[in-house]
Amino acid sequence: MTGNLFENTSLDTAIAALKNDLLDPGSPKISTMRNYRFAILQYDPREEYKLRDRIRKLTDELKSQGWNVLSVSLKSLFLNRLKKEDTRLLDSIIRTEKRLYDKEPDRGINHLKDKISLYIEGADGIAQDVINLINDFTNQQPEKADHTLILLERAGSLYPFFRSSALLKHIDGKTNNLPVVLLYPGERRDLNALSFMGELPADRDYRPRIYS
Known about the structure:
Blueprint: H1 10-22, E1 38-43, H2 48-64, E2 68-73, H3 74-83, H4 87-103, H5 105-120, H6 126-140, E3 148-153, H7 164-171, E4 180-188, E5 194-196, E6 209-211
Parallel strand pairs: 1-4, 1-6, 2-3, 3-4
Antiparallel strand pairs: 4-5
């Protein structure tokens, strides 16, 4: 026998724990706080494709048991916003970033962060798009609210412009109290600290339960 018997099991363990709490006989228990049904599934960014495979299997299993599952691609929401923008403005942002980067790489990146954050951050950013999708999805079958799961995925595509703690704050209280799970590529530094993609400084501004 070769290899480590316990290699790459943390993701499976985290998903198994999430599944167990979702299927609690009483009601989904992904949070210890009443009326705050958010959770974070943290995983190694290098396991992105494994994560997608496991989440697909979890989704299929939940649906087979009568659940409604909405997968929200944060990447798609971001790209949809860019597609609505004037191409001349986007070209100007790109040209300026290249010019600044040639002089000093950090200046180019910071310029891009300032401009891109306008499409992502804030109550009117992709948080509003998430809220709209959740409301539309819930209104289709309101009687199944107790068996509905919202998955926020593809967050890694927004690196380094994305702050998940800010997103969760902006959608708090606006998700019809449905279970919402953010799939978070990064590192867990301690009990409540997460580093996005394992590259950014650890963010400790988290209230949800973290599965990892």
